[in-house]
Amino acid sequence: MALLSVELKINEKLYKTNPQRTDLGRKILQYSILLIDELGLERFNFKRLAERIGSTEASIYRYFENKHLLLLYLVNWYWEWMRFRIEIKLIDMEVPAERLKAVISCIVDTAKRNTTIAFIDEDVLHRIVVAEGTKAYHNKLVDAQNREGFFVSYKALCEKVAKVIQENNPDFPYPRSLASNLLEMANNHIYFAEHLPRLTEVEAKEDTLEQVEELLCYFAWRLVQPGQPPSGASAKSNGNVNVHQNNGLQHS
Amino acid sequence: MALLSVELKINEKLYKTNPQRTDLGRKILQYSILLIDELGLERFNFKRLAERIGSTEASIYRYFENKHLLLLYLVNWYWEWMRFRIEIKLIDMEVPAERLKAVISCIVDTAKRNTTIAFIDEDVLHRIVVAEGTKAYHNKLVDAQNREGFFVSYKALCEKVAKVIQENNPDFPYPRSLASNLLEMANNHIYFAEHLPRLTEVEAKEDTLEQVEELLCYFAWRLVQPGQPPSGASAKSNGNVNVHQNNGLQHS
DNA sequence: ATACTATAATAGCTTTACTATCACAAACGC
DNA sequence: GCGTTTGTGATAGTAAAGCTATTATAGTAT
Question: Which domains are delineated in chain B?
Answer without folding.
Answer: 12-226 (1.10.357.10)
